[in-house]
Amino acid sequence: MKSSVEVLSPTRVRLDVEVAYSELEPHVANAYKKVAAQVNIPGFRKGKIPASMIDQRVGRGAVIDEAINSALPEFYGQAAREHKVAVIGRPEVDVKEFVDNDKLVFSVEVDVRPEVKLPDFSKITIEVDNVKVEDSDVEEQIDALRTRFGTLTTVDRAVQMGDFATLDMTAFIDGAEVDGGQANDISYEVGSDKMIDGLDEILIGMNVGDVKQFETKLVGQQDGEKGEVKATVKAVKERELPPVDDAFAKLASEFDTIAELKADFVVRLERVKKMEQGAQARDRLVEKLLADNEIPVPDNLVELEVNDHLEGEGRMEDAEHRAEVDGQVRASLKSDFLLDAIVQAEDVQITEIELTEYLVRTSQRYGMAPQQFAEELQKAGQIQQLVAEVTRAKALASVLGRITVKDASGKVIDLEELAPKPANPADLVEEA
Fold first, then answer.
1. CA end-to-end span of the chain, whole Å?
2. In angstroms, rounded to a whole number, what is the distance separating the alpha carbons of residues 108 and 78?
3. Alpha carbon 143 to chain centroid distance?
4. Which of 114, 198, 307, 327 has CA 20 to 30 A from 151's CA?
5. Which CATH architecture has domain 2-112?
6. Could you tell me the residue ranges of all domains in the chain?
7. What CATH architecture applies to the domain 151-240?
8. What span, in angstroms and rounded, lies between the C-alpha atoms of 374 and 12?
9. What's the whole-model pTM score?
10. Which of 191, 41, 10, 257 is nearest to 113 (CA)?
11. 274-428 — its CATH code?
12. Residues 150-170 pLDDT 10s
């Protein structure tokens, strides 16, 4: 086989391939066998029909077409590997010439990954924010803790923002009550916006016994379907928060004084903000690399992804939304190309242990058991995506170790100290 490659653009190439008939012969033989097993010719058993009879009854041209169709992926793949073409997207094949018993000539146009030039990472300096815990940060933590230990007290007044209202609710569509659309004695925090669109607005100012009916998008119905909800207020409660004193510190923590509790929050928040420095360094490095590199993306690939997205939303004709999604897809592809270039340059390989650790950490963010999370990924066909994420994260961590990271005051940050502790792979094993 002879082949050559021509670069048509930074993201597209054409492969020209010439295959000697001797290389095509095995595919021709297989094509004869396939046709022989499919046709019925009197006097011959299926699968035992001579090639000459197939040529006479079916035509050699049909056999050659079958042989070429089965052979093209093999020879195309061989040519792509020979020229180290990083193919993405669907190839467009054009059979230029076939001379029986002599040669097959074809060309393939296909999108490819663009070349990404990476810098000398040891010469890069990234600045991150200083670690500084403000009094407001500590007060926010104290208020959150007070909320956990607060008590609800019934009040005789109209509903205000932040109150807890006890509600009876009924949903209607076109005046008819929705099957299963009734719920009684619901405790709802007014202002949390966690239930039904418009509920917070109508509750403000209502008193016990008041009833209001309003139009809204109904949860669990067809996408975009609206109906009406009738809400009845049965009780109004306000949350009373404990005072910030030593007694509260003893109640809510292992500390005896509020000063000790606040000092502990300072230590914890400093630790969190230091971890944030590592994430910030990573994000700002990627931003810098993307800004410093003009990474082209294949228009064909962008169009396919945009169309798939819009078709799933039923918004194919929404030009404004199309432009928005187009920008998002291009940004995502550029980031992927950059990170994959780093993976290749760093020759990164991941181990099963690293994959398991990442799986454990990620499952915790979703509040799922690692084994259950792994099964859901398997069902959704997203294991390969997970592997890509882990590989890219490892490659990025590798180059982060070579850059200089300073905070806004000029202090050099040691990212190794900020690295998260490995998760326990044994967590994947379910207890008997």
1. 58
2. 12
3. 34
4. 198
5. 2-Layer Sandwich (3.30)
6. 2-112, 151-240, 274-428
7. Roll (3.10)
8. 36
9. 0.72
10. 10
11. 1.10.3120.10
12. 999 999 999 999 999 999 999
